[in-house]
Structures are given as structure tokens and as C-alpha cells.
Amino acid sequence: MSAKTVTGVDGREWLVSMKIMWSDRSEGFEHEKEGGRRAVIGIIVVLGLLWFALIAWKFQVAAVSVPWWVVAILLAVAGFFPVRWALRRPRRLMVEGGRWPDDDQGFGEAWSGYIRGRADAKAEFKQAVRTLQKRGTPARANSPLQPQ
User: Fold this and answer.
1) Looking at the whole model, is its pTM more than 0.70?
2) Smallest Cα–Cα separation from 107: which of 115, 93, 121, 96?
3) Cα separations in angstroms, 93 against 11, 42, 104, 117
4) Distance between CA 134 and CA 126 in Å, rounded?
5) How many CB atoms lie within 10 A of CB 115?
6) Burial 10-40, CB ≥16 within 10 A → b, else e
7) pLDDT string in tens for the chain (148-residue length)
């Protein structure tokens, strides 16, 4: 989780934070790309069988030499999808505060939104900080941030 305290152009203090969401509680993120649990289990089983066949082939026939680049390609293919999955997890961007420094009453404002992908989330985080410093509010036209 990353967080930054920002003072707006009007002097109000805000806390901008971003947190990765490992459980997919929000709807509408992966429904178009995901085939469900059966598809994932099927792909893992087929990939495991292919690895087993390669290893069994290596030990059954002593004359077989598996080139290093075949192993490298298999490792790259096996590692691509978990890394992509981790990088494409949704992040929750929260902007809280908006109170005047001398005001002890009230809770201020809270804005939050979900952004898919690490790079997009970092860019949106920086945009929220810049918008607070220039306009004094996290709101802008195409922002995923919505008031709570």
C-alpha cells in the first residue's frame, strides 16, 4: 500500500492511498476474459501433463538431450500468466480528508475508485495528487474516483 499526504491549493490536507485488491470483490473486471474455474483447472492440468511428458522423456531415453532454450521457453510460458495476473490486479485508489488544518469537527470528504493494472493505477495516483495541488479537489472529468 502506498500513501501520500497532499496539501491542496486551498490549504486543505488530503491523504491519497492506493491498495492492491487480491480478492476480486468488485464486479465487472474479469468477466469478459475469464473462462471460469474449469478452464483454469484444465489449462493447469494440460500444462502439468506436458511438463511430466518432457521430464519422463528425458529419463526414459538416455540419448535425448533437451536443449536449454526449450527449457527457457517452457519456463517463460509457465511464468508469463502468473506475472501478468499479478500485475493486472485491480487497485483501489482512495482520497480522504479535505478538512481545514484548524477544523476539528467533521470527517471531510472521501473519494475512491478501482483501477486495473499497476501502471494505470500509478498514473491515476499521480494525477489525483496533481489535481489536488492545482484545483483543491480530486474530481476531474474522466476520473474513476467517485465521492463516498
Assistant:
1) no
2) 96
3) 22, 34, 25, 12
4) 12
5) 20
6) eebbbebbbeeeeeeeeeebeeeeeeeeeee
7) 788 888 888 888 889 999 988 766 555 544 445 556 677 788 788 888 988 887 887 778 777 677 889 889 988 888 888 888 878 888 999 998 866 666 666 567 889 999 988 899 999 999 999 998 998 888 788 888 888 8
